[in-house]
Amino acid sequence: MQTIHLRLQELGPDFIRNLKQQYKSADLQMLITERPSAADDLDEDGFWQLIARFDWKKTGNDNAVMEPAIAALSQLSAAASGNFLDILSEKPWRLDTENHARPFTEHHPQNRLSVDDFLYVRCSVVANGRDVYTDILQHPEKMPDLTFSGLLNLAHMAHKRKTGKDLKHLPTYNYETYSNENGWI
């Protein structure tokens, strides 16, 4: 059994002829999945544009800081919330390394690492935008001692506002502390 993924627009006479030649006596089973239109897809740039909407004048209230991004994401397709969560999950996962944890633990008594606090610190790096994230990804010694746990709820809040339902989406990356096993070798 072999699975072939292609967009419907790619299905043409040449493709079908090649399939018939390669799999002379095979049965064909088709599973059609509808994708959101390209206009509804949220890509990396769109993700960072949403993050750039944060209103830092409202520091101290994570939800108020994120409100402009929540409002904008809730105006996109319901699938965009899942896309946001997938893109988001990769960012703290990439920062989940021993090198990034070292400066964080140096600020804490007995050099202990709180797995929750370290996750929230990594979220604060992402919440401060693409430039900060990229800089700290490349320079772990710049890791801050700030937290922003609310970021983990942004996609869920936008989806709930859009659909009235909870977001049921397993993100691409596990961003919990110590999940990036290669970062702790």
Kindly describe this structure:
The protein has one domain (38-184). Helices cover 48% and strands 0% of the residues. The protein has eight helices and no strands. Helix 3 (62-74) packs across helix 8, helix 4 (78-94) packs across helix 6 (115-127) and helix 4 runs antiparallel to helix 8 (154-163). The longest helix is centred in the middle third of the chain and has 17 residues, at 78-94. It is globular.
Q: Could you say which overall geometry the principal axes of the C-alpha atoms support?
A: globular
**Number of extended strands:** 0
- The ordered H/E elements are HHHHHHHH
The average pLDDT is 88
Count of distinct structural domains: 1
Radius of gyration: 21 Å
Distance between the ends: 38 Å
Strand content is under 5%
The biggest sheet, with number of strands, parallel, antiparallel or mixed sense and barrel status, is: none
The unreliable regions are none
Query: How much helical structure, as a percent, in the residues?
Result: 40-55%
Query: Structural class, please?
Result: mainly alpha
Our count of helices gives 8
Features:
about 180 residues; mainly alpha; about 0% strand; globular
Concise overview:
The protein is mainly α and 185 residues long. It has helices at residues 13-22, 44-51, 62-74, 78-94, 98-106, 115-127, 130-138, 154-163. 27% of the residues are buried.
How is the topology of this model organized?
Layout: H1 13-22, H2 44-51, H3 62-74, H4 78-94, H5 98-106, H6 115-127, H7 130-138, H8 154-163
